[in-house]
């Protein structure tokens, strides 16, 4: 098993050279106070140390041991508690948290890099702080001052954790169906919560002294469906006004799931039996509140795919450089050795470069989306704030689904590079496939992301935001004056043009026949993802070309990988265009004969 | 977890309606003696019972329990021994075996269907008899009469099993590197074998009283590399001339691997320490001998992908019909229920129909290839025999790699249909993903299959066999007179035309620059697979259209699935053409910067 190294140089390249995030931070007072390039570099280094030295070493052992459930108590695998304590003491849970309540108020563009390190090092571990962070976003945005003051500092510090209790046995994708009940105790927003939630990541564990469950439930006279759902904080242990722990609440973990992967992450069945809960915000707005948090969570899960892929890529490169098998077809490269390394084989390079081109485009794209989240949250220019918010809405489903679909494919390729050893547990590559797989499913399946993208964010929006983004890309490409990049520029512009036309066509078709939405959605999202990745590769290429004079090989490798992307990966769009155009007719079948 | 049902009607359709295999059997005396439609139908039914009732129920429990290793002894999971005994007593191990030595001499076209049932029911289990059958093919083709008379009846009856000992720690894909030594004891073909083999499927277990290991080894004065490798039978327990068991041979199982999947299949490290071995055929021809067997084994492994996919498809359809979530976009379909079933969603249908269109094309293709194996083995017409043998050579790598790549993709889709439940072990879908994954790796990785196809079977052959196959397809399509199928005919002919031109281009390019082989191989194989699948769908469609008058819905569903294939799957070829054309330039990178 190769050692995991945080790709710090690639992160610096993305953050400071390609996107110059530090310049954006300096233009926004709230960020300028806390974030500059130097601080960010130092923080990235600290986080990398933690990821490499404390968290990555627990990845294999955590997979083997798994989380334990015993009579309602959940124990995380050996070392997790110590690593979480170290992580929490470093202040990382509160990194992007509200500074008024003990967070560090750092930009998400920085947080996204830390997320990637964590998922790449150990996806199971990463989920514990990630769910905490997610819960704080929802609390910060919608809870009362009292609840914020009580819960945020405790969760930011890692003393307590958070969880999201949404899914019920009969209500997964369709949250409008949930049945968990909330009965008011008093007019102060106190309720008794009763119901069963399933698939609750970090619903119960031993990493913190308390867990703040964010629970979706329904009061008795609430409107039916999605409009009658409210959000509650339900603590595992009841607390007084100062946050001192009192008696346990009526919350129990009924069991944990035995899963394909992320085995060290406890996926819990949670039973609420007249548990005390505290209303967040207003009644019946629960689903809308969850969506605030979801843009952050969905980007984070996209980054899980990216991180697993990066980890697999690193190991695959190391293995291909070390493992000897066969000889170069153009003549033996190392006659003294019993065979040449795998690197001499074009097909192995094809796999590695496919992985690399998708991973580095993914890193750029996740950073780009994180910067939109920052602009939407922090910008003082209302127009820029609104534009960024519309970008976040449009791009979040792409980031979640495309990064996880590609991340999974990348881990499968990284397993293939290892041949038979890729299938053996001790080599680690197969775990990454299993761990990456869940990211395509949870936090809204990738099919749901695709429906959200094409339905809500393109059709319903009449492609307005897409138009703004398209103009941004065209403007950027038009500004490139490079012989080297000219063919990629033409390729992207031509595809973008077809993509815009297709989007317009689809809007008409879907309004006419709603079935066309589901028939086109997944392929449309992939098309979008490949276009954005091409945009990212052009952004990276422009910078790389400018720096060729001072190059030690790093910038040339970016240009090489860009060439690979445009030659070998971007053509995937051809088939997607054709498939989407064929429409929904092929789905009109007699399902009795399926 | 849905119950597994052998798709008997689909098998009958493929075997007897589309390919009319029974007619071919009647034209070949050796087959006519044993195989007619009625017998085949009865055997399929018997095998289906066994697969459904005895073998499938052990799939989940076998995955949970896994194979055990204890001080050299390997125990299979509970129930495996009884199921193997039932399977062996039914005569299934010797189904396609040589009748002169106790086999049933049945055609591979029938055997392929039983293989599919077995892999679909329980891939781990299927590998035990499969390795036995594989070893008998090599023994039957190349060993002396004495060895054949001693080993074949025992293995056909299941009293003994077989294994293939090829891979060594430093020699996987590149078998020319193997170091296991063979020292002659006498002139009678007895040798002492010393060396270590890894990744040996069914190398040790408790299902039979003896195991005949087929071992690749090298005598001391053998030529270097692939031309100095010989094949030996090394029994686990020494035997006398009548097959009575004597003392144990010096063969030990050092450990078994902990793997991603096929956990009930023992993957062994085998140590040979001056173990007695018997030369098969002539010295230094071992690799060539293994290739005889490999065409059968590779088709069989292709069928593993197909079987896992079919099992996943069945469960996904059952789940989609049962699970309720959301409402149809064109209006609620079942107002009395709390939600509509998953089937109302176009995206779910897209997944199911993608699975179905690939699985049924795969079943037809594996049957088509099996019939070529039968013609190559049994035909009395030397020209037909030679043509069939050349088809086998050309199509085997496609069958192995395309069926396993598609099989894996199908299981991943089948997992996605289940949403979160797809990730939970008890639902079974995730096991199929893990079990299918190995089939892309072992028996020659799919990258190796692609090199074999494009290098040996197309370039080296100057596309002669491909030309013959192309003419067969064109002739078949030209003979179709159907308005309904006309668009598919045009689509296939146009693609076939481009494919032929591409093949010719590639031959020139690869002769000029051998790196172009590895750069194009995998995508070329996929292109080939999609073309063959389109051919299969046209073959099925022609029959289905003829039978529409007597239809109960079955034939219409074939036509619907064909439409889906041509609308939504076949367009994948567009991107493959473009990617392949870009050539190897994108792989010329400085690998220090990977």
Number of helices of chain A: 19
Low-confidence stretches of chain A at least 5 residues in length (pLDDT < 50)? Answer: none
Shape of chain A: globular
Tell me how many strands of chain A there are: 11
Strand content of chain A: 5-15%
Q: Work out the oligomeric state of the chains in this entry.
A: homodimer
In which order are the strands of the major sheet of chain A placed? 4-5-11-7-6
Structural class based on helices, strands and sheet pairing of chain A? alpha+beta
The whole-number mean of residue pLDDT values of chain A reads 97
Largest sheet of chain A: 5 strands, mixed, barrel
Using CB atoms under 8 Å apart, which protein chain pair has the greatest interface? Answer: A-B, 99 and 98 residues
Could you state the order of secondary-structure elements of chain A as H and E?
HHHHHEEHHHHEEEEEEEEEHHHHHHHHHH
Helix content of chain A: 55-70%
Rg of chain A is: 24 Å
For the termini of chain A, the CA-CA separation is 44 Å
Give a short summary of the structure:
Two copies of one chain form a homodimer. Chain A has 594 residues and is α+β, with helices and mostly antiparallel strands.
What's the SSE blueprint?
2 copies of one chain form a homodimer.
Chain A: H1 8-18, H2 21-26, H3 29-32, H4 37-55, H5 59-65, E1 68-70, E2 73-75, H6 80-89, H7 108-121, H8 123-142, H9 145-156, E3 160-165, E4 181-184, E5 190-201, E6 210-219, E7 230-235, E8 237-239, E9 245-248, E10 251-256, E11 267-279, H10 286-322, H11 346-378, H12 382-417, H13 429-437, H14 446-459, H15 464-478, H16 486-512, H17 515-546, H18 554-569, H19 572-581
Parallel strand pairs in A: 3-6, 4-6
Antiparallel strand pairs in A: 1-2, 4-5, 5-11, 6-7, 7-11, 8-9, 10-11
């Amino acid at each position: 098993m190769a050692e995991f190294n945080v790709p710090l140089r690639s992160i610096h390249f993305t953050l400071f050279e390609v996107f110059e995030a530090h310049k954006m931070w300096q233009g926004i007072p709230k960020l300028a106070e806390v974030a500059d390039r130097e601080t960010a570099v130092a923080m990235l280094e600290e986080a990398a140390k933690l990821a490499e030295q404390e968290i990555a070493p627990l990845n294999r052992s955590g997979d083997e041991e798994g989380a334990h459930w015993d009579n309602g108590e959940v124990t995380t695998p050996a070392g997790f508690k110590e690593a979480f304590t170290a992580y929490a003491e470093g202040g990382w849970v509160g990194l992007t948290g509200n500074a008024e309540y003990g967070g560090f108020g750092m930009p998400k563009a920085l947080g996204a890099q830390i997320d990637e390190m964590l998922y790449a090092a150990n996806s199971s571990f990463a989920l514990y702080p990630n769910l905490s962070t997610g819960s704080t976003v929802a609390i910060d945005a919608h809870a009362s001052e009292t609840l914020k003051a009580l819960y945020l500092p405790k969760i930011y510090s890692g003393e307590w954790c958070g969880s999201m209790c949404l899914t019920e046995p009969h209500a997964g994708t369709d949250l409008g169906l949930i049945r968990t009940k909330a009965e008011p105790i008093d007019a102060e927003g106190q309720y008794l919560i009763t119901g069963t939630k399933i698939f609750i990541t970090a619903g119960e564990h031993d990493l913190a002294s308390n867990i703040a469950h964010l629970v979706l439930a329904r009061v008795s006279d609430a409107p039916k469906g999605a409009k009658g759902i409210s959000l509650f904080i339900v603590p595992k242990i009841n607390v007084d006004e100062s946050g001192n722990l009192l008696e346990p609440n009526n919350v129990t973990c009924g069991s944990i799931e035995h899963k394909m992967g992320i085995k060290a992450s406890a996926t819990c069945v949670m039973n609420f039996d007249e548990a005390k809960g505290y209303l967040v915000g207003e009644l019946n707005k629960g689903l809308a509140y969850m969506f605030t948090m979801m843009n952050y969570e969905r980007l984070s899960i996209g980054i899980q795919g990216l991180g697993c892929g990066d980890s697999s890529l690193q190991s695959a490169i190391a293995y291909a450089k070390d493992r000897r098998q066969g000889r170069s077809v153009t003549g033996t490269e190392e006659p003294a050795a019993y065979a040449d390394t795998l690197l001499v084989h074009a097909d192995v390079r094809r796999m590695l470069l496919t992985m690399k081109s998708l991973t580095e485009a993914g890193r750029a794209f996740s950073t780009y989306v994180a910067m939109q989240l920052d602009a939407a949250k922090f910008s003082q220019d209302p127009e820029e704030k609104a534009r960024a918010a519309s970008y976040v809405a449009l791009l979040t489903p792409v980031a979640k689904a495309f990064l996880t679909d590609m991340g999974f494919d990348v881990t499968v390729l990284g397993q293939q590079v290892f041949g038979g050893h890729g299938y053996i547990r001790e080599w680690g590559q197969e775990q990454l496939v299993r761990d990456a797989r869940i990211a395509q499913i949870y936090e809204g399946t990738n099919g749901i992301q695709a429906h959200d993208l094409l339905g809500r964010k393109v059709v319903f929006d009449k492609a307005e935001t897409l138009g703004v983004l398209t103009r941004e890309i065209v403007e950027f490409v038009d500004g490139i004056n490079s012989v080297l990049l000219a063919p990629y520029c033409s390729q992207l512009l031509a595809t973008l043009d077809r993509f815009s036309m297709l989007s317009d066509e689809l809007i008409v078709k879907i309004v006419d026949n709603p079935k066309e939405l589901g028939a086109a959605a997944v392929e449309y999202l992939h098309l979008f993802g490949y276009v954005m990745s091409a945009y990212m590769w052009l952004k990276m290429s422009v910078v790389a070309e400018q720096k060729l004079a001072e190059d030690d090989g790093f910038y040339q490798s970016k240009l090489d990988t860009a060439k690979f992307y445009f030659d070998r990966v971007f053509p995937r769009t051809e088939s997607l265009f054709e498939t989407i155009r064929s429409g929904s007719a092929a789905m009109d079948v007699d399902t009795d004969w399926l």
